[in-house]
Design goal:
- The complex is a heterotrimer of chains A (455), B (286) and C (180).
- Chain A is of the alpha/beta class and 455 residues long.
- Chain A contains twelve helices and 25 strands.
- A five-stranded parallel beta sheet of chain A has the order 10-17-11-12-13. A three-stranded antiparallel beta sheet of chain A has the order 1-2-7. Chain A has a three-stranded antiparallel beta sheet with strand order 14-15-16, with no helix packed on it.
- The N and C termini of chain A lie far apart (62 Å).
- Chain B has 286 residues and is of the alpha/beta class.
- Chain B has two domains: 116 residues, Glutathione S-transferase Yfyf (Class Pi), Chain A, domain 2; 156 residues, Rossmann fold.
- In chain B, strands 2-1-3-4 form a four-stranded parallel beta sheet, with helices on both faces. A four-stranded parallel beta sheet of chain B has the order 6-5-7-8, sandwiched between helices.
- The longest helix of chain B has 17 residues.
- The relative contact order of chain B is 0.14.
- Chain C contains eleven helices and no strands.
- In chain C, helix 8 packs antiparallel against helix 9.
- The two termini of chain C are 26 Å apart.
- The chains are: A alpha/beta (455), B alpha/beta (286), C mainly alpha (180).
Chain lengths: 455, 286, 180
């Protein structure tokens, strides 16, 4: 991150959001909202005095997933780039009550700017790469696992923060309820994933591997610990992955039990986990200090909103759709927009890195050319027939049709760089003025007749 | 207000105190209960297990009877009866073949005009917590009650509230001035109909329930099902005779608690009919 | 397992409306079932036996007669399979095919209960319990509670006869065990 922030060919816009996107490949016009940090980025030296002196110290840290706190003026984590803080206006005493202002008093360069406003900038870009990542499914939906009420039932991401020696628990895996080090830890795989009743029938791909890693690290951090992993299947399809899981079981003592947990309840200080070993046909209960849920990887809550701004298709879960699931995994259906990482579907780090490399090459391929070669099977308008009803514009999901005045009447005109040839317009047009090349009615009928000949 | 009333076989026999307290409770809220004429057994678990058409036809006849009496709502305190009647009600709407076959068997038709209620639903939605609270003159302070739902919220045909962590009974108990404890077994199975046939199973499950209630600090268990009451009450005595416990956890009906909180005398409410002594409850109350 | 390997699966699908083909054998049903200590096969194993067409082993085991229909399995199944319904269907297939039920007492009890309905229209508890105890060779079971319960008025001495008893009788004669 630090390297990219210093590169002269890269402008890093952090704490910013996409406001709107117009145009098409080679000519995207993007409006970006640079949100107000309340800190002048040029004057700030990153000394950290403001964060030290801020009196609001007990705000749950988003990065530490509630396991630790932050101040109202904060940077999300120590290695954040740039090293310039942000004031959380919803918790800052000045913004909520009009008092304090300690940060501006202690800032040696006068970088605090309470009057700072959001800034909107509009610029042209040739291509867009979407790498917006994922969110974790909220396991509150499982009443049988406590519905979010049990302090000692946490997510894998929270455990990840605990295992970090510079994290909120200094590397100790503890029970959030009393801070005691956890000895018996139960891991549940497939929480949310592979669950039709929660609307997520898919496998989140990464959890089997990171759970094995967690069980291994837990043993390292606390040799007295014992891990139990409840799984349905172990997905370890990667280089050295299977061997890694085996090592966790064989050399690090993790007990793997095949069966999904039915419920978790509190009994005194312990969490009772009611599970089953389908391989021996035994229902069993384990009393744990801590329970870790491997929650499903889901799209971000604003994924659909972003997809609509970018005009890219997405699936029923909100994952962005590739142009072709096998042959074009890093391109969106919309030309010029590339996808990488878990925003298109759960994947791990090696795959995300590989995809990013592929997307970068795709970008170079576009930006290095003067002309764009597109598939010919896109829509076109017969001006003789077009009546100017413009219904096709209303149904085009890619905003790929514009108007052009012909003899004083607005006609439809296809923007060739945007049209992927989906055919929505062709099926809507009542006079067959707009059709998809290669898929005219006559051509489709001819295909049907040829196919029916054999019958 | 007039409600149809389906007591069911248990309430007329071993769970008489449930019937007694529900009637008195409804009276206290100005609800006039009209018992369904010539009602028959709903079939309960045996019909459900042995004969599909019977398990639907027996409850359906009661619904037909209720309609003949021009009743609009039917209250049935037993969750199993309520579930079976709700299922028959549901099938009547969705399945033409079913309707025709039932007409063949019962000679009459059900027009699906009834609303079916269980005691918890009735208290929470029809009467409302505000009214329950306003009629509480002797709050149940000192009572730490484990609200036990059993399988109520999971039974087919019943869609009252959350299946894993229901709160309606807890909130009613709180409105009565009692403390509804947080305990781990509020929806666990009591062994139901195995009371006579596989008593050892009931012993095992009931012991878990009683232990959990004790760990949570409860001094009383509130139930809304005659089978739960019988299992937790009668088999508690047996467990103690076998050397388990002691538990000393009186098992009472929610309706009895409602009346107690209204200042009614315990000996009018059937508490003496319970096998585990309820004297400890009365000594706790002011 | 050769031949029509989907036969039993299809029978269950037709009679219960549930398709065991959806099952991923996660075991959550068995993990939450309160009766697994008594069952020969756990619920997930029953579904696997149905899927692999092992009708014989399924119908001969005690699992579905030990099921109390608490619905825990059905409510938590991630594939939304109504396992309790499948158990209920298996009970009836077991009876239809005249396979000896196990444990027998459960069926005996059910029959005695239904006989009581046939006789009176409602369950005459005292008569039913006595008959059941006699039939299962335990005449004094729960007798110690008798006097206490009698004194508390919890036992109806005489049965109540329904006016529409003949309708109930005809209903019990004509009703079909399984709805196709």
């Amino acid at each position: 991150m630090t390297e990219s922030s210093h590169d002269k060919n890269i402008t890093l816009l952090t704490y910013s959001e996409i406001e709107s996107v117009k145009g098409s490949i080679g000519n995207f016009e993007v409006t970006i909202r640079k949100k107000a940090r309340s800190v002048d980025m040029i004057k700030c030296t990153g000394c950290g005095e403001c964060r030290q002196k801020c009196p609001q110290k007990k705000i749950p840290s988003e990065f530490d997933l509630g396991l630790g706190n932050r101040t109202a003026i904060y940077i999300p984590f120590t290695q954040a780039v740039p090293n310039v803080p942000v004031i959380d206006r919803e918790t800052c005493i000045y913004f909520t009550k009009g008092k304090c202002q300690v940060c501006s008093k202690v800032c040696p360069t006068g970088a605090i700017d309470y009057e700072q406003k959001d800034e909107l900038i509009t610029e042209k870009f040739g291509t867009i790469v979407v790498a917006t990542g994922f969110s974790l499914f909220d396991a509150k939906a499982y009443g049988e696992y406590g519905g979010g009420r049990f302090k000692n039932v946490i997510t894998s991401l929270q455990l990840e923060r605990m295992l970090d020696s510079s994290g909120p628990t200094a590397g100790k895996v503890v029970r959030p309820s009393d801070g005691k080090e956890a000895k018996d830890v139960v891991f549940l795989q497939c929480v949310g994933s592979r669950d039709e009743s929660k609307g997520l029938p898919y496998c989140s791909r990464v959890c089997c591997m990171y759970t094995a890693k967690h069980a291994l690290l837990l043993k390292d951090h606390n040799p007295e610990s014992q891990s139990y992993v409840f799984y349905i299947d172990i997905r370890a399809g990667g280089k050295n992955y299977e061997e890694f899981v085996k090592k966790t079981q064989k050399d690090y003592g993790a007990i793997y039990i095949r069966g999904r947990v039915s419920r978790i309840y509190e009994k005194g200080e312990k969490m009772v986990v009611c599970g089953v070993d389908t391989l021996t046909g035994t229902a069993l209960k384990i009393e744990a200090d801590l329970v870790v849920l491997a929650s499903a990887m889901i799209p971000n809550p604003d994924a659909v909103e972003l997809a609509q701004k970018l005009n890219i298709p997405y699936d029923k879960y909100g994952f962005f759709t590739e142009a072709h699931p096998k042959l074009q995994p890093v391109e969106s259906v919309t030309k010029g927009i590339f996808l990488t990482g878990p925003c298109s579907f759960p994947k791990d780090i090696p795959d995300s890195v590989a995809m990013s490399g592929a997307a970068s090459v795709g970008v170079c391929a576009v930006l290095s050319k003067e002309e764009l070669i597109v598939e010919p099977k896109i829509a076109w308008v017969d001006d003789e027939r077009c009546t100017g009803c413009l219904n096709c514009i209303k149904v085009c999901p890619f905003d790929a049709i514009e108007t052009r005045v012909v003899d004083g009447v607005p006609h439809a005109r296809v923007i060739e760089s945007l049209c992927p040839g989906c055919g929505n317009c062709a099926s809507t047009c009542r006079v067959k003025a707009i059709t998809v090349k290669g898929f005219t009615d006559e051509q489709v009928y001819a295909q049907i007749e040829a196919a029916m000949e054999k019958v | 207000m007039e409600y149809g009333y389906y007591p069911g076989c248990s309430l007329k026999s071993t769970s008489r105190e449930y019937d007694l307290s529900v009637r008195k409770m409804c009276e206290s809220f100005g609800v006039n209960l009209v018992e369904i004429e010539d009602w028959n057994c709903c079939g309960a678990s045996p019909a459900h297990a042995m004969n599909e058409e019977l398990s639907l036809a027996l409850p359906l006849r009661n619904l037909i009877q209720a309609e003949k009496q021009h009743l609009k709502t039917v209250l049935s305190p037993c969750p199993a009866c309520h579930s079976h009647m709700s299922l028959s009600h549901k099938e009547s709407g969705e399945n033409i073949k079913f309707q025709e076959r039932m007409k063949e068997l019962l000679k009459e038709e059900y027009t699906r005009s009834l609303t079916l209620k269980h005691v918890v639903d009735f208290l929470y939605r029809d009467i409302g917590l505000e009214t329950v609270r306003s009629k509480t003159t002797k709050p149940l302070a000192g009572l730490k009650i484990a609200s036990y739902y059993g399988c109520l919220n999971r039974l087919p045909g019943i869609e009252i509230e959350d299946k894993e962590n229901p709160v309606m009974m807890d909130e009613i108990v709180t409105a009565l001035g009692g403390e509804s404890v947080e305990w781990s077994h509020k929806v666990e199975c009591c062994g139901a109909g195995f009371s006579l046939t596989k008593t050892s199973v009931v012993h095992r499950l009931v012991k878990d329930l009683l232990d959990a209630a004790k760990i949570a600090g409860a001094n009383c268990i509130a139930v809304v099902c005659p089978l739960c009451q019988s299992n937790l009450d009668m088999r508690q005595i047996e467990l103690e005779r076998k050397g388990e416990g002691p538990f000393a956890l009186p098992v009472v009906y929610l309706s009895q608690l409602v009346l107690l909180a209204q200042g009614r005398k315990p000996d009018e409410l059937g508490f003496e009919k319970h096998l585990v002594s309820c004297k400890s409850i009365f000594s706790m109350l002011p | 397992m050769q031949g029509d390997v989907h036969a039993f699966r299809n029978v269950i699908l037709k009679l219960s409306g549930e398709d065991v083909g959806k099952c991923i054998q996660c075991g959550k049903c068995s993990a939450g079932c309160p009766l697994t200590p008594e069952m020969e096969f756990m619920p997930n194993q029953i579904l696997e036996l149905i899927r692999t067409n092992d009708e014989k082993r399924v119908l001969r085991c005690n699992t579905f007669w030990y099921c109390v229909s608490c619905q825990t399995c059905s409510v938590r199944c991630p594939e939304d399979i109504d396992i309790a319904k499948i158990m209920n269907t298996l009970r009836k297939i077991n009876l239809e095919k005249h396979v000896t039920p196990s444990p027998r007492e459960v069926v005996t009890f059910n029959q005695v209960f239904l006989d009581s309905i046939r006789g009176y229209g409602r369950v005459y508890e005292l008569g039913m319990v006595m008959k059941y105890n006699l039939m299962t060779g335990q005449p004094l079971k729960d007798a110690s509670f008798g006097p206490d319960m009698f004194m508390k008025g919890k036992i109806a001495i005489l049965p109540h006869r329904l006016k529409a008893l003949s309708l109930i009788k005809s209903l019990m004669d004509k009703s079909r065990r399984l709805i196709e």
